[in-house]
Amino acid sequence: MSHTARQVLAAGAMTPEGHIAALRFGLGPRPDSPPPGAPRAWLLAQIEAPAEVVDPPLDWEQDPTAADALAINLLDRRNQVPPGQRPRGAVLYDAEIRSYLGRLLTTTMPFRERLVGFWANHLSVSARDSGVLPLVGDYLRTAIRPHVFGPFGTLLKAAIRHPAMLTYLNQDSSVGPDSTLGRRSRRGLNENLGRELLELHTLSPAAGYTQADVTEFARLLTGLTVERIRDPRGTIFRPDSHQPGEKTIMGKVFPPGEASIDASLDWLAIHPATHRHLALKLARHFVADAPPPAVVDRLAGVLHDTGGDLGAVARELVALPEAWSTPLSKLRSPHDLVVAALRAMGAGPEMAQLAGSAEFALGQQIWFPVAPNGWPDVAAAWIHPEGMLLRLDRMHAVSGRFMRRDAKEALELTLGPLASDATREAVLRAGSNREALTLLLGSPEFQRR
Amino acid sequence: MKRHLPAVGRRGFLLGLSAGAMLGSSRVAFGAGPEGDSRFVVVLLRGALDGLSAVQPYGDPAMAELRGPLALPQPGEEGGLLDLGGFFGLHPRLAKLHAMFTANQAIALHAVCGPTRSRSHFIAQDMLEIGAEERLASGWLNRALAGLPGHEEGANRAAFAIGTDLPLIMRGAEPVGMYAPSRPDRPAPDLYAKLMEINHADPLTGPAIEEGLRARGFTAGVVPPAEQRGGFVELAAAAGRLMTAPGGPRVAALEISGWDTHSGQNGRLRGVLGQLDDGLDALREHLGAAWARTAVLVLTEFGRTARVNGNAGTDHGTGSAAFLLGGAVAGGQVVADWPGLGAGRLYENRDLMPTLDLRSVTKALLRGHLGLSPSAVDAAFPGSGAIGEKTGLLRA
Fold first, then answer.
1. Contact B194 A430 (CB under 8 A)
2. With contact defined as beta carbons under 8 Å apart, do A388 and B208 qualify?
3. Model confidence over A191-245: pLDDT tens digits?
4. Alpha-carbon distance B301 to B49, whole Å?
5. Which structural domain range is residue B128 located in?
6. pTM for this structure?
7. Looking at the predicted structure, is the pLDDT value of residue B99 above 80?
8. Which of A132, A172, A224, B178 is 20 to 30 Å apart from B230, CA to CA?
């Protein structure tokens, strides 16, 4: 550990707030990114700072675009993949995952990365769909990452209009039944995106919309689709598949045409029910599985007062006293646990593959959520007997990779004042350094953030 | 929350495990009822099975018009339905299930629904597993365990969840075991013991580790390594083995997803129905003689639209189909108060009208098959007083 890091660590050890900033708001400390001495300033700086510059994925000179991914997907579909070779889309996908996980392991802006992950999970796409698979990297890079501190409406529009989302939720095959194409081809509506947009991305069922609203919204979205064959590939609006006529959603009337898509997303993005829904999810992520209603009210209030400014709500999270209370109650998801454990060990980006396989083994394969509601964010979803033992097994495997990493130093770095006496004693008295590391990574405090 | 074992017993148990006395220890750990007890398995089809494809009402005159390319050929034709007595036909990929039907060991239920009319997967699955119209913190199967005859609080692990996630239906106050495929590279037993020590006081991680170690000790002695892989068929076979092992659980829950067929439904359903069919047959095979005392309930959160959508698929709907199989059921019948698919008969002019609440089926099973008292059934399904128990499902 560097001299500076040791000094900062010593300063942080007097109060748990440095560790809380690194654990709850960040992704866990690294030897070169220790718990900060000025926790709130460290977090706020990550909201303002310019984005980190990272290398493009393996074998790419520049970041691949959605158009590149669509072209690759088309090639894979048209040409048989030669024996012994993997589809090009899968190769790109692996490179993207390695790039992303490598970044999480090493980033010095972990609060920003946590929010990128949070919003990507809120607007979840899944590589379970082979058409989505090569697009996920670009989705994160262009639809989510640039917008996590801007207006929610901007993020929402970027995510919904991305080919990954249009493919994942079948919008690309939805056709207005009374459109030119619909009348000619007998193709029709697919409600999937319309429904999930209202239920998961914006209003939530608490808003009380009906099946008729879902169908109307699906009609409004028709025309929005993906051009896969001809250049330029990507999201387009096809007037000949757009359902004619006005659409009425929860009493709000939208005229026919492409402009109503953005207009309806902007309207949904600043709807009070959307603000409450987002506030609840943020409070659940940063405060507790069942957050105090007052916290939700406060976050919803900030969203309301700022027209849904995600930078303002991120600053409010930092200011919330409830987000700084100990003991930390949020259970780390398998993804969070694996990233935090490898960061604690000082792992480099080359450990991304190990991280990916550990997350897979623990039931949270990266970019592969089971359903459009993304990964769960409550302990009850992750804490079960066999899963808990698998956690211990995987942490033991991590300690096997880093047997020389000083366990006492890792204890101070990762838990410091948050470690219970029992955990501290077990780590310090363990029979071997590896055993000490397994006990640290398998301790109840290390399961929390 | 579950009680913790005293520290001495806990350590002793762990050491016993490491010595390889798997079944000896696990009998204490699981302490299930006497041989000959009835077995109950719930299979959750997550993602909404299209009941009109799995059990097609080919005799309904509106069927072909509504379904277009999703309507399969009539029984007897090439690739046609497997007849269920003249009106309904089973999907051809459910041939093993059809053989059980023919042997009077399977019932098809139709136009069924869960407690809600939500078309959200997440809400409908939750409510199906909770077994009520409002949110509760536990699942109905977990609450039912408390009412098992001969059940002493904290005495046994009568139930097992099969898979890598504990489903809501099994969550609650009653301790539940779990089985998941095994992985290599594990800490030595004494290190597990130390990990248990430092997690012992934690209300979340402590009980999970304790229960996980019990379950591993039990399953290692019962499931052969070749089956510890994790596909639905392997999990179903493992469930059958675990439920017939001495001291094994009597109640199990499994799940299989892949039913959300918004497009290209015919192709997608073939694969997943085949897995379901093979898995149910593997379960039957591995239950062996206990199959005669078994009831397996296969259910899904809701059905899909009666009309084909624009992508040769179907969207979220309401009424669906379910299955009940096993030697304990009065098989060979289709149980349906058929609402019809014609004009004016569909729910909200789009979905199969539900005419049977699945709670009336589960209540009948808890009473007649597992022997729960009426008050224990009410506790499993609070607020369901108006829903009577469906008769005629079980062998006399």
1. yes
2. yes
3. 999 999 999 999 999 999 999 999 999 999 999 999 999 999 999 999 999 999 9
4. 8
5. 10-186+225-380
6. 0.71
7. yes
8. A132
